[in-house]
């Protein structure tokens, strides 16, 4: 029953937000601007110094009087004078319009909603692409963490069920531990079922060993795999996709740089102790040798009689 009430309340909220129009959003902005400039609780009527039941002609006279006071020519050097004067004109127009005044009176009596819908906030703040990407990364990371936590709780419950089955098979319903090890078979594949031909198909039976309060899975090679809470993977933000992606990119960058450094080190070792690389020395570094070989050029030069002689490649 409580869940139904929450769903109904959310449905009403969605309907109310969807029903707000562009004119309503304009009223929301004006109310926020007036309260920020004149103080909390300032209304259109109190700013114009008229009563909420004032007639259209009274509102018009109040507007003319206020416009003389707030005209930018009358307030030179006042910061935001043009914005204030423009705001006065919009408020006067809303209150002198029958439908506009009706909409404002509704919010004047019931209060401006605190949550005005995602469309309202997006249209006002218009976040950039970077902000949107960061926001989505945070939201999806939190959701992934929540899923990890749910899976962790499910795994803990499964471990508890399996250990209880193994101990019950080993020591009976009293679960009084005995001495030594007990080898039992535990069904980990669900309840047995009847096949199409009417034969009984057992669940996935696994060999397990119970020793005191410890439970193990017996592997084919005879090794024992403990079954306890440590087998369940706890939730961690380090396993969410943004962190994993960043770690992977960092590892590739660092690994690539290490490979380049290692290659340079090997080349330095190969060329150490040989003739200098000065022009005419004929020394070729391993990297140059690879480049020349790939380009089909000569791979070595030799010195004979003080002259450089190209090595001729046999066809």
TrEMBL record:
Gene3D superfamilies: DnaJ domain. GO terms for cellular component: endomembrane system. Residues 43-108 form the J domain. Keywords: Membrane, Signal, Transmembrane, Transmembrane helix. Residues 306-315 have a biased composition (Basic residues). SMART domains: DnaJ. InterPro entries: DnaJ_domain (IPR001623), DnaJ_domain_protein (IPR052606), J_dom_sf (IPR036869). Residues 1-19 form the signal peptide. Residues 256-315 are annotated as: Disordered. The chain crosses the membrane at residues 128-147. It is a single-pass membrane protein. It is found in: Endomembrane system. CDD domains: DnaJ (cd06257). This is J domain-containing protein. It comes from Phanerochaete carnosa (strain HHB-10118-sp).
């Amino acid at each position: 029953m409580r869940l139904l009430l929450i769903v109904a309340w959310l449905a009403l909220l969605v309907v109310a937000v969807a029903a707000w129009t562009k004119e309503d959003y304009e009223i929301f902005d004006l109310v926020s601007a007036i309260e920020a400039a004149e103080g909390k609780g300032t209304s259109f009527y109190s700013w114009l110094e008229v009563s909420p039941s004032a007639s259209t002609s009274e509102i018009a006279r109040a507007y003319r009087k206020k416009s003389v006071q707030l005209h930018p020519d009358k307030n030179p050097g006042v910061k935001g004078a043009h914005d204030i004067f423009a705001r006065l004109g919009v408020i006067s127009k809303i209150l002198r319009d029958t439908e506009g005044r009706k909409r404002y009176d509704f919010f004047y009596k019931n209060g401006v909603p605190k949550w005005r819908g995602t469309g309202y906030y997006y249209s006002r703040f218009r976040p950039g692409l970077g902000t949107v990407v960061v926001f989505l990364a945070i939201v999806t990371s939190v959701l992934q963490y929540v899923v990890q936590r749910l899976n962790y709780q499910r795994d803990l419950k499964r471990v508890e069920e399996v250990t209880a089955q193994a101990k019950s098979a080993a020591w009976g319903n009293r679960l009084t531990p005995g001495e030594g090890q007990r080898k039992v078979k535990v069904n980990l594949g669900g309840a047995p079922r009847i096949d199409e031909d009417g034969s009984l198909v057992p669940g996935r039976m696994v060999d397990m060993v119970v020793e005191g309060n410890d439970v193990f899975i017996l592997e084919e090679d005879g090794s024992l795999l403990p079954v306890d809470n440590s087998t369940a993977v706890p939730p961690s933000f380090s396993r969410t996709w943004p962190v994993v992606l960043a770690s992977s990119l960092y590892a590739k960058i660092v690994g690539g740089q290490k490979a380049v450094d290692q290659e340079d080190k090997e080349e330095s070792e190969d060329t150490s102790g040989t003739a200098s690389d000065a022009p005419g020395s004929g020394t070729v570094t391993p990297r140059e040798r690879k480049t020349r070989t790939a380009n089909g050029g000569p791979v070595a030069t030799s010195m004979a009689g003080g002259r450089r002689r190209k090595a001729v490649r046999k066809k």
